[in-house]
What we know:
The protein has 408 residues and is mainly alpha-helical. The chain is built from 16 helices and three strands. The chain has a three-stranded antiparallel β-sheet.
Amino acid sequence: MPIYEYTAFDQKGKSRKGIIEADNEAGARNKLRASGKYPIELKENLSQSTKKGRTGLGSPLVFERVKSMEIHIFTRQLATLLGAGIPLVSALSSLLEQTANPALKKVLAQIKDAVNEGNTLTNSLAKHPKLFSNIYINMVRAGEASGSLDIVLEKLADFGEKQRILQGRIKAALIYPVFMAVIGSAILFILITYIVPNITKVFADMERTLPLPTRLLISLSNFLRGYWWLLLLFLIAAFYTLRLFIQSARGRQIWDLLKLRMPIIGAVNQKIILARFGSTMASLLGSSVPLVTSMQIVQSIVNNSLIAEVIEEAIEHIRKGKSMASALGSSPWFPPIFVQMISVGEQSGNLEPMLTKVSDAYEREVDMAIMGMTSLIEPIMIAGMGAAVGFVVLSILLPIFEMNQMVK
């Protein structure tokens, strides 16, 4: 469907600019008049229309990607406008005019048009699943049903920013080790394939048998120089084989179990999942989403098949009348203190604030665990690099020592 850029007067006589989607120019003018705008200038945006034809709704091009931060900002601004008593369509129009990202602007124009045609905000957002998650849609639905949409949107913005900060901390903690691993591997590769062969040429005329470390180093150097492409193909094949294995049901279970059982990393993964479980459940329940529906949504975002199975079993127990604490208590992945705090929340009728507290507690533990993991990874990597360089140096020096002994 073509997209048009327009300049129009609103009912107060102010000039407005924006974009609108319609079958043709006449349809665009009718839509503008129906929304209380009187078009002055209207022209088709061919670049936007072409891009939409190639990518489809909710699939902006790479160079026009909608970032999660932009969605959080939009959510908070919409909550502020609705909280100030501004009607939904007018609030969406205001946000549409001040949005700089063309991809997000296009989506907001489609949402505004859908709402203006009588659709609910929930149904309008649901047409863009790549931008608005299942949690987002369900919380907005609950907000519309309860008449507290501005409060729910404020909670959504807080929740999104909280999750983004947690992900940012994890990524920041992993940047240094990954950078060191890549640079260290590159240095070792250059050292073994280019520098070592020039040094080991000296040993070619020796009639004595070279030490074992030196022979291993020369063999490794010759292999990497002649068959580095074979090693690269092997690594690529291993990567895709592992990826296909993980995509299978059995492989996914094994991989998820490893993520929870691995030393150090497993504990961090478990705490991240528990923090996400608590914060998501608190946000959903605080937005009046039913308990079973909230559990089903959380099940889809935990990103671990083993814990997802536990949640699925817990949903069946809850449907039979059991409490959430008793339903989760039999699983080894939910610690006793986590289950106990949920139990206290259920008994006192304060489940939402208790889930918020437990989520905050585990997020603090995640921060400390990440700091501990980072401080442990650094010396391990330095020791590994030192051992590799030490092996190269020792392999080169051993024949030199033997040559000195022969001279004496």
